[in-house]
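Pipeline run #58 for the internal structure catalog. This entry was flagged by the ingest filter as a single-chain record with no existing model, so it goes straight to prediction. Upstream metadata was stripped on purpose; only the residue string is passed forward. Reviewer on rotation: M.T. Logging verbosity set to normal.
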Amino acid sequence: MQPAPISKYRPFPPVDLPHRQWPGRTLRQAPRWCSVDLRDGNQALAQPMSVEEKLEYFDLLVKIGFQEIEIGFPSASQTEFDFCRRLITEQRIPAAVAIQVLCPCRADLIGRSLEALRGADRVIFHLYNSTSPKQREYVFHATPADTVRLATEGVASLKAQMAPLVAAGTRLQLEYSPESFTSTELSFALEICEAVTDTWGPTPAHPIILNLPATVEYATPNIHADQIEWMCTHLTRRDCTLISLHTHNDRGTGIAATELGLLAGADRVEGTLFGNGERTGNLDLVTLGLNLYTHGIHPGLDFSDLNGIREVYERCTKLEVPARAPYAGELVFTAFSGSHQDAIKKSWPHQRPDRPWDVLYIPIDPADLGRSYQAIIRINSQSGKGGVAYVLEHSFGYTLPKLMHKEIGRIINDLADATGRELTAAEIHAAFQAEYLARTAPVVLVSCKTTEHDSSVHCEAELTLHGQPHRLTAEGNGPIDAFVRALGATPLPKFEVLSYAEHSLGKGAEARAVSYIQIKTERGLGLFGAGIDTNIELATIKAVVSALNRALAR
């Protein structure tokens, strides 16, 4: 890196817009959406999609609800041309969906594209040419007048050549992009857009789409918003124009730039699922759509099976959605931090169907996206007691007493430290069973029977202690008290029962009882035990034995 002061780079110039309105506005409705996955996204793949993959992807976009889909660049290759023809001849395009094709402002390529569109019902014909000063200077060696002439001649050629298509019933709308709009002088961007609009002749009933792309993201999102508002307020036929956004993500703020561009007056958005695109990618339509959804604005797109959408995307593009990608990433509904886990667990029971969503650390209900609650809290060495208790409850049905959370949390954290990785729910369950339910030494309960006599309970128990059999009897005011008194005849250390809890595990005829007992030994050691049985009293006795075996193991 260049040491300070930096002379190699300079800040992007601000827009002179003293009475800007966008900072005080609030988004209240979703924009028109256009997916460019099959063109902009596909051309950015190291291994472009096959025709069959593109067909599957097109069906996915339709299922999500996109009504404008850029399907490709028919004049660029035979493969692109054939894909367009298959969509039309095989009648794969729903009546409500407009297919969009991209084409530079060249008469021969316009003609080839129109040939590919024969028989289409609704078409958006997307013309473009580069307009920025450096593109004009370095690439095309063109003056501003040359650049305007190229655009207007392209539009005129389209109008002339499209007549047979329109006569056959195709409804065609023009979209024009001054490529690299955000690095073009605003005055010149306005000039060329006005010239294109003059040539096309739109009406309020049949508007032109002016797409203002941030082909490369150079500026902060507020400057992008200023550029969009400047154009919206200076166009002479705003009522005949749909302003479209097409942001890229070079500075990592493509979504923010789009949101502010919508506040600035834009009507339409182009982007891709999960932001696939050149360099750092296009606008992520999933994130933008769900950002609106979490503010109470339905995007008009269906992301209720987000896992299924991600599966098709990853299979067709050979890309992976990052684990931390908003909404769709594998880990975005996962809390490892102990304090976060505890807050989630405590706030979850307060959620009601008639209240706004307000679960801590989770800005959207995973169920709205077809995702599972079970993956919300996962355990590693940074996790806390609340997270472990959550996994045991929601995955396996154990509602542990509050005082037991710290104890089991420490056990699982030690295991995570020892393994040096995240623990699965199955591993947590196995550790819980080994610690509390599967201990058979030094005390083994062989049998236990209790009977009531007036106001007392008689206990008869058989157990082995260090391999030696013991037959015990005692009276108590309840099954636990009677069993504890019976243990007094053995060499086991004296203890007292501090707390007791129970609940059913499962439902119906297969239901069992699970009991939790907390004891305190003469040495002041407090430990929990757990027991499971179809008989609630026997489950409680097993919990006492579990606690004793844990105490003796210490």
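catalog note: The domain at 29-317 is CATH 3.20.20.70 (TIM Barrel).
catalog note: DSSP finds 18 helices and 14 strands in the chain.
status: ready for reviewer M.T.
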